[in-house]
Structures are given as structure tokens and as C-alpha cells.
Amino acid sequence: MEFRKVFDTIPEQFDRYRPRYSAELFAALIAYAGIGPGKSVLELGPGTGQATDPILHTGCDYHAIELGEHLYGMMKRKYGQYPNFHIVNDDFITHDFGNQTFDMIYSAATIQWIPEDIAFSKTFALLKPGGTLAMMLTRGDYRTPNEELYNKIQQVYSAYFKPETQYKHGAFRYTNAPDYGYTDVEKREFYGKREFTAEEYAAFCGTHCDHIVIPEPYKSKLFDGLRQAVLEAGNKIVFNDTFVLYLAKKPPLTEE
């Protein structure tokens, strides 16, 4: 199974444990892009709505495209009653949007699953002149709050983290947007904190694509080891989160 499809096997766990983004980030994004009633927005791969509510509740014409059948189903159950909510279950790479265009297209830890040339060129084509492309991700630091616990967790990973297929990080370059016609590219950072018990931390780790595909007996030993490490540290692990927001603009039409 492709890594980008594996999340669809755990929709309830994904919904409960995947991180949300800061209110400050959304306030800045909504103000920057001028999102509200009369504006059309497309979210790429919303999962189960980790970045949906603040945008949907502006009253904009919200659209989403979700690859996973079960994730799509959960989105329909959660938001289907909103008249401004629209979603399709399809692959952004191949989906035909017809004549649709959008004032903003945004992604919360999704666009990196799409080949860079397709991601940038297709979003550029789908945006209205002057439209915004927004790309957000979370970087969680659990080393700074507790170095000793961090080191114990690394020992567990060294012993039992043996996925059958390695996930290759870092291939997508957010700052390459100008190569595809985008302008005014900027990066903003916002901050937050999460705390997990041992059981919650293991469940959260179980939402990582390369953890889901670890074969037994390593999978059980990995998660047992992670739980035990956090239990021995007082049954608490703290994450200092950095929410990264990349912004880019499609140039407006210029008068001849």
C-alpha cells in the first residue's frame, strides 16, 4: 500500500490523535487571504478535519478532495450538514476540476505527498489571479522538554523500528513555488504545546504512516517500549510544537 493511502486504515485513531493547528495560524491565514463569504476555498487531503473547522466556519464556499474512502466518509459525517461544505473522494493528481477555480488552496501536511511539479503547477492553474496557496505542517519537539526520556525513546526505536518500506522524508521543497509562477513566498511560524500520557503517546505514534506498516513482532515491541518509557517518566510526554505556514500568491491580472 502507498504511504499516502495508509492513513485511511485508521480513521478513528487518526481523528483523535493527529495534531490540530494553532488558532493564531488560522487567524493570520484568514486575514492574509481575505477568506469569508463569497470566497471559494479548496483543501487538499483534509484527513478527518484537522485544519477544516476554522476555514469552513468563515462561511466561505469550502471544497475538499480526499483520497481515502474512510477519511472521506468521516468528513461527510462531521461536516455534511453545513451548506457551504463540499467534498469529493478522489485523487488530486488525476481529478478533473472542470471549470472550478479557487481564491485559496491550502494543505495541512498533505501537499508533500504529491509530486512537486504536479502540486505546484496544478494548484497554480486552479487558483484565481491573486489567489493564495497555503501549506502548513507541524514540527514536534519532545527532546527539549525531557532529554532523558528522548534518549530512552531513541533506544526503543533503535531496537524495534523496522518498517518493511522506508518512508523517504524531505523530497518536497515548499520554497520552490516561484519555479512554477508563484510570487510573494513567505514562511511564518506559530507555537503550541501538547501533552500525552503513555497510552495516548503510543496511539499518536500509531498514526505515523511508517509505524502503521511495521511487521510483527517488532510493531508490538515498539509500542510496548514507547509506553513503558513514558510511564517511567511519570506517565507524561510533552511536545513543543512549531506550526509552520508557507504562503504564496498567484500574481493578479495586469492591465494591458
Describe the protein:
- The chain is an alpha/beta fold and 256 residues long.
- It is built from 10 helices and 7 strands.
- Strands 3-2-1-4-5-7-6 form a 7-stranded mixed sheet.
- Strand 1, helix 4 (53-56) and strand 2 (61-66) form a beta-alpha-beta unit.
- Helix 7 packs antiparallel against helix 10 (218-232) and helix 8 (198-205) packs antiparallel against helix 10 (218-232).
- The longest helix is centred in the last third of the chain and has 15 residues, at 218-232.
- The N and C termini lie far apart (50 Å).
- The model has no long low-confidence stretch (mean pLDDT 93).
What key attributes describe this structure?
35% helix, 10 helices, alpha/beta, single chain, 256 residues, 25% strand
Low-confidence stretches: none
H/I helix tally: 10
Strand content: 25-35%
What oligomeric state best describes the polypeptide chains here?
single chain
What is this structure, in a nutshell?
The chain is built from 10 helices and 7 strands. It has 256 residues and is α/β, with parallel strands linked by helices.
